[in-house]
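Dear colleagues,

As part of the handover before I leave the project, I'm documenting each prediction I ran so the next person doesn't have to rerun anything. This entry is a single chain, and its sequence is reproduced below.
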Amino acid sequence: MDSNALQRAALKLKVVFHRNEDEPGFWVEVPGFPGCLTEGETLEEVRSNVHEAFAGILAAMQSSGECERLPGDVTEEIEL
C-alpha cells in the first residue's frame, strides 16, 4: 500500500449501541476494549462521545504499556 493510500485509510471500530432501560438515551460499548463505554441522549451524541471514549482508552493503554527501546529507535505519534 502506498503512503497516500495509508493517509486516506480510516480506523473503523465495531460498536454496540444499547437503549438505556431507566431513562431516555443510549449507551455504547466497543467490543474488545473493556471500559470503553459512553452514553448520550441521542444516537448522534453517543456516536460523537465514542470517539472521545476510545481516544481515552488508547491513551491509557499506551501510557501503561511498555516496549523494548534500542539505540537508534525513533518514537513518534501518528494519526489514525
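The chain has a mean pLDDT of 86. The chain is about 35% helix and 15% strand.

All the best with the project,
I.
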